[in-house]
């Protein structure tokens, strides 16, 4: 009898300990599937149109993720995130064929001092435009003018982000910014971590921001270095690609007005791959009803010392069927000057020097 009682008490104690441990740790599975049907004209030099289901993005790129947190006490948590991107039209992995190409990090988060993370993670360039870019990583957006913007992630990175009252500060430092050599704009083949070369494939980004309920402003600096075999002409560790951004937004009642400029200077190993440019954008987001929202944006990519400039405009109408599900439609136009060939749909194709118009309708579900 005594043995039975002791066994029951031990079982109860074990259950209590297990319940306490579970109460302190939280792990969640989340995701988003977003796709539709898009039509664009002038998809090649012959001026042919194309009808397709895009794989890169709808209003947001599709993803599946796992994230968790463990309370360590004293306002500190251990955190992690594993997030994979995929193309909903075919089911293949995105982000340069990485299993967890969107995020793969572990870190510590403190309510007073901020968050420190290690691994593959978004850098400050992505964070800079979240509140001011009303279209975000939409298929028709400034992503087409600069494919790095929605793919600004760094491998082998140390990251920090802190929020102090209405101010934000952040930085990332990558020892080898991109280990993948294939798989689209997210892969540039610059693994780094080379013995004896402290610049090979290194990257650092920094952010300073101010936000309140009425307006906000964020500025960032982002510089990446190259090495042998890297894409984009950055084939030496002395070659670099630098972006400086200034992003602002203001609220006018329930409407948001957002604007920004991305100044870029690429010093490639060969002059033909070097360039300087400024990308300007202006947008507005207005809720017609709580469920119906219209977003509009115009932008211009000015390539310095060149006539190969591009002007972009798009309007998106979204209707939220529920908190998790939305339908949307959009129209857009890309005007290419000179020999510019910037496609309206991010990751798409267009004939050299040809303008391109397009329409899309889609469905988004989050879970």
What does this 3D model show about the protein?
- It is a single chain.
- The protein has helices spanning 2-24, 124-128, and strands at 25-40, 50-52, 63-73, 76-85, 103-110, 114-122, 153-164, 167-174, 203-211, 215-225, 240-252, 255-267, 275-287, 292-303, 310-320, 325-336, 356-366.
- With 367 residues, it is mainly beta.
- It has one domain (27-366): Porin.
Task: Pick out its properties.
globular, Porin, mainly beta, 367 residues, single chain, 2 helices, 16-stranded antiparallel barrel, disordered N terminus
Annotate the secondary structure layout.
Layout: H1 2-24, E1 25-40, E2 50-52, E3 63-73, E4 76-85, E5 103-110, E6 114-122, H2 124-128, E7 153-164, E8 167-174, E9 203-211, E10 215-225, E11 240-252, E12 255-267, E13 275-287, E14 292-303, E15 310-320, E16 325-336, E17 356-366
Antiparallel strand pairs: 1-2, 1-3, 1-17, 3-4, 4-5, 5-6, 6-7, 7-8, 8-9, 9-10, 10-11, 11-12, 12-13, 13-14, 14-15, 15-16, 16-17
Helix content: under 10%
Identify the quaternary structure here.
Answer: single chain
The low-confidence runs, each spanning 5 or more residues with pLDDT under 50, are 1-23
CATH superfamily: Porin
**Mean of residue pLDDT?**
92
N-C termini distance: 50 Å
- Our count of helices gives 2
Q: What is the CATH architecture assignment?
A: Beta Barrel
**Element string (H = helix, E = strand):** HEEEEEEHEEEEEEEEEEE
The beta-strand count equals 17
Structural class: mainly beta
């Amino acid at each position: 009898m005594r043995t039975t009682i002791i066994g029951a008490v031990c079982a109860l104690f074990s259950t209590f300990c297990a319940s306490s441990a579970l109460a302190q740790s939280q792990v969640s599975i989340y995701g988003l599937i977003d796709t539709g049907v898009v039509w664009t004209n002038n998809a090649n030099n012959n001026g042919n149109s194309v009808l397709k289901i895009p794989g890169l993005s709808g209003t947001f790129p599709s993803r599946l993720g796992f994230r968790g947190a463990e309370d360590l006490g004293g306002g500190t948590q251990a955190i992690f995130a594993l997030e994979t991107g995929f193309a909903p039209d075919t089911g293949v992995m995105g982000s340069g064929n990485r299993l967890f190409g969107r995020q793969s990090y572990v870190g510590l988060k403190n309510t007073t001092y901020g968050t420190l993370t290690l691994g593959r993670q978004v850098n400050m360039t992505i964070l800079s435009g979240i509140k001011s870019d009303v279209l975000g990583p939409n298929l028709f957006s400034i992503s087409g003018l600069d494919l790095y913007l929605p793919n600004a992630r760094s491998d082998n990175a140390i990251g920090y982000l802190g929020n102090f009252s209405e101010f934000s500060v952040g930085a990332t430092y990558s020892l080898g910014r991109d280990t993948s050599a294939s798989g689209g704009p997210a892969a540039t083949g610059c693994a780094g971590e080379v013995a004896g070369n402290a610049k090979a494939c290194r990257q650092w980004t920094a952010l300073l921001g101010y936000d309140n309920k009425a307006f906000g402003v964020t500025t960032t600096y982002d510089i990446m270095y190259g090495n042998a075999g890297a894409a984009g002409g950055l084939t030496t560790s002395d070659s670099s690609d630098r972006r400086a951004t200034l992003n602002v937004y203001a609220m006018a009642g329930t409407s948001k007005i957002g604007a920004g400029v991305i100044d870029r200077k690429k010093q490639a190993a060969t002059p033909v791959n070097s360039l300087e440019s400024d990308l300007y954008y202006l947008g507005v987001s207005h809720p017609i009803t709580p469920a119906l929202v219209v977003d509009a944006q115009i932008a211009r990519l000015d390539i310095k010392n060149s006539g190969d400039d591009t002007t972009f405009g798009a309007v998106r109408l979204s209707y939220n069927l529920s908190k998790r599900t939305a339908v949307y439609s959009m129209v857009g136009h890309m005007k290419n000057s000179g020999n510019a060939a910037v496609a309206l749909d991010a990751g798409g194709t267009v004939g050299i020097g040809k303008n391109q118009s397009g329409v899309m309708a889609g469905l988004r579900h989050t879970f």
